UniProtKB/TrEMBL annotation:
InterPro entries: 6-hairpin_glycosidase_sf, 6hp_glycosidase-like_sf, Glyco_hydro_88, PolySaccharide_Degr_Enz, RhgT-like, SGNH_hydro, SGNH_hydro_sf. The lineage of its organism: Bacteria, Pseudomonadati, Acidobacteriota, Terriglobia, Terriglobales. GO terms for molecular function: hydrolase activity, acting on ester bonds. Keywords: Hydrolase, Signal. The keyword Cytoplasm does not apply. Residues 1-24 form the signal peptide. GO terms for biological process: carbohydrate metabolic process. Residues 434-637 form the SGNH hydrolase-type esterase domain. This is Rhamnogalacturonyl hydrolase YesR.
Length: 672
């Protein structure tokens, strides 16, 4: 049975003549059995496949640059976050999506996806879907363990739950008692389980988890790896099974599962693991073969060797293949000249032909074990998860790495020479500003319609009396501003009586030792510390809490005879019930705690600005931002600079009152 489907513009079912007129492609319609599977998946809230998904998106670009990649990735992520949230489950169809959300937060710096995953994990009490869990039911622990590893202060409840579940199966010779199958008997399992065991090793240092991983993958490789085709059979039952065209059946999503599984395993596999080179070579072999099988439209068919009987492009497998290839390029395993064009073609096809105006990602095959038919609108969470992983990895591929003389803003991909300011008149007193890109964005010239408040502060002061010296650097956290030497260089310029405004928090929530930034600090204000090998600076480093670093700024500023003033971080444009969300339980609260403990002046910018936004309302606040949630325009920066002055005037002893300009004198003091 056939139907004609239009794949460009609005989704259309029509007569053969009308379809041909709009350049449609004849595609097989799901059989009754396949449709029953689609209906079942829909009823379980794995996704859906409406007849009319609306028009394709016109606000996305397939360009491989940071802004374009981030925009389209977040568009799809935002749509699926809203769609899926009421129906979160511990099942694998959701856990792949959860992994994608974590990756997008890490890549873009937007914490809302990680915050959502924290809420999800807490709601399930870090539990698994079943006892004696199989690979599918273990997969949710990828997200649990990333929350543990990246969360600064460690949540022991996560580790206890995952340990209890993994240790139940670690000594089982087969899948379960009475079931003779090997634990990872189907290729999907190689995405679901190995990354969990690798992360568990990273969390505990217990080598038994890596030993189990290596042993089980070896058991899976032997029956499923086709040495002639350099592809994985879905499971042992497919080794001799042939498709309608008489060729072996290799499922694109299955190959994507394995490539993605290798990538996510290598992320946490020890560098000295004896099987590490095996995984790398396996990824190389898969990349080479899948590149050969890429269709002219840029994607892969659900049946890798049978584009005639399965002519539709399949997005979940294609996205995972792109993720695996991009990871290989980023890690230096795959040749850029060979594989970047493959990725470019695939990404272009996904972005231009399979994303709808509302953010829906289509052409995702329903759950199953082999190639099948589906509608272009078909969108299931695991496929969106694969796309998010691909987008996050492409972000890493196209975003230049930070070199010693460059700086990343917290808007990923925007780079600038440091060009840090020094006092214009060394004879005058100075007000130094230390912070991130919300204080000084890039070169402070308004590029990308973004400006930090520090570059608008001078208008409120009489610069014939005082220097305004903006030493903030985009992309830095309380930790990295110190560890990279910027704080020490600033202190060299400080004289007794100078004032130092210090604001951090936006970049402290990331991982402690990831390959791209390694800028996170440990949550809270305690004495916790962790030894890490910093892969960005290539040094061994002791990482401390956010409070530790803020305390260091205060003490070392005072040692120079300066007056430190702590500022809570400016709020993000995140609304809830008509109000801007505060960060009282995290960086705002921790900054306030250090200010109280050290008896240092505090400007509560988080609250001052949030109150102003609340009073203005969402529509009026929107033009004050140059990106979705963090970085302000020049107008927004000016308003925030005015908030700084308002906060200074509210201090019991305002150290700069005599240095204000007429505009500064007109600002009303903040009243808590």
């Amino acid at each position: 049975m056939k139907m004609r489907i239009r794949r460009a513009g609005a989704f259309l079912l029509g007569t053969a003549l009308a379809s041909l007129a709009c350049g449609a492609q004849e595609l097989p319609k799901p059989t009754p059995a396949m449709q029953a599977g689609i209906d079942k998946d829909t009823s379980r809230h794995f996704g859906d496949a409406p007849i009319d998904p609306g028009p394709l998106a016109t606000d996305v670009s397939p360009a491989l640059d940071t802004a374009a990649v981030d925009h389209v990735t977040r568009k799809v992520a935002d749509w699926d976050l809203a769609r899926s949230r009421p129906y979160w489950d511990q099942i694998w169809t959701e856990s792949v999506m959860y992994a994608g959300f974590m990756a997008v937060s890490d890549a873009t710096g937007d914490p809302k996806y990680r915050d959502a995953m924290t809420s999800m994990a807490e709601g399930f009490h870090y539990g698994f879907r079943s006892k004696l869990s199989n690979a599918d039911d273990e997969s949710i622990a990828q997200t649990y363990l990333e929350l543990y590893l990246q969360g600064g202060k460690k949540n022991q409840a996560i580790l206890d739950s995952v340990r209890a579940n993994l240790d139940q199966v670690i000594d089982l010779p087969t899948l379960r008692p009475g079931d003779p199958r090997i634990p990872w008997w189907w290729c999907d399992a190689l995405f679901m389980a190995p990354p969990v065991w690798a992360r568990m090793y990273a969390a505990t240092g217990e080598h038994k988890y890596i030993d189990y991983l290596d042993a089980q993958w070896a058991k899976s490789y032997e029956p499923m790896w086709d040495k002639d085709e350099h592809l994985y059979a879905r499971d042992a039952s497919f080794v001799n099974k042939l498709g309608p065209n008489g060729k072996k059946i290799f499922w694109s999503r299955g190959e994507g599962w394995v490539m993605g599984g290798i990538a996510r395993t290598l992320q946490y596999l020890p560098k000295d693991d004896p099987r590490r080179e095996f995984y790398i070579q396996n990824l190389k072999d898969l990349a080479a073969r899948t590149a050969q099988l890429q269709d002219a439209d840029g994607l892969w068919h659900s049946s890798m060797l049978d584009g005639k009987d399965f002519p539709a492009p399949e997005v979940s497998g294609s996205a995972l293949i792109v993720f695996g290839m991009a990871y290989g390029i980023n890690e230096g395993f795959l040749d850029v000249a060979t594989y970047k064009p493959v990725i470019e073609r695939a990404w272009r096809a996904m972005v231009t032909q399979h994303i709808y105006a509302d953010g829906r990602l289509g052409d995702i095959q329903q759950t199953g074990a082999e190639p099948a038919y589906y509608l272009p609108s078909s969108s299931f969470h695991y496929g969106v998860g694969g796309f998010m992983l691909a987008g996050a990895e492409l972000h890493r591929m196209v975003t230049p790495r930070v070199a010693p003389d460059t700086v990343a803003t917290t808007d990923p991909g925007v780079y600038a020479k440091l060009h840090l300011q020094t006092p214009a008149n060394p004879k005058l007193r100075s007000i130094f500003l230390v912070g991130d890109s919300t204080v000084r964005n890039g070169n402070g010239d308004g590029a990308h319609n973004q400006m930090g408040w520090g570059d608008e502060l001078a208008q409120f002061f009489d610069t014939s009396k005082v220097n305004i010296v903006n030493r903030a650097i985009g992309g830095r956290s309380s930790r990295t501003y110190i560890s990279e030497g910027h704080w020490a260089e600033t202190l060299k310029l400080v004289k007794p009586g100078d004032v130092i405004l210090i604001q951090f928090g936006h970049n402290d929530s990331g991982p402690l030792d990831d390959k791209d930034r390694a800028r996170g600090s440990i949550n809270g204000v305690g004495d916790e510390a962790k030894e890490v090998d910093n892969p960005v600076r290539h040094v061994h480093e002791t990482v401390y809490s956010f409070g530790h670093y803020m305390d260091q700024y205060v003490k070392e500023a005072r040692a120079k005879g300066a007056i430190p003033i702590l500022c809570t971080l400016i709020p993000r444009k995140t609304w809830k019930d008509g109000h801007i969300e505060r960060q009282t339980s995290t960086y705002r609260g921790w900054t306030m705690a250090i200010a109280e403990r050290d008896r240092v002046p505090l400007i509560d910018l988080n609250e001052i600005i949030a109150r102003r936004y609340d009073a203005m309302g969402e529509a009026a606040v929107e033009p004050l931002f140059g990106d979705p949630h963090t970085h302000t325009t020049a107008a927004g920066a000016t308003m925030n600079a005015e908030a700084v002055v308002s906060g200074l005037k509210a201090l019991k002893h305002d150290p700069v009152a005599r240095d204000l300009s007429d505009k500064g004198n007109a600002v009303v003091a903040y009243k808590p």
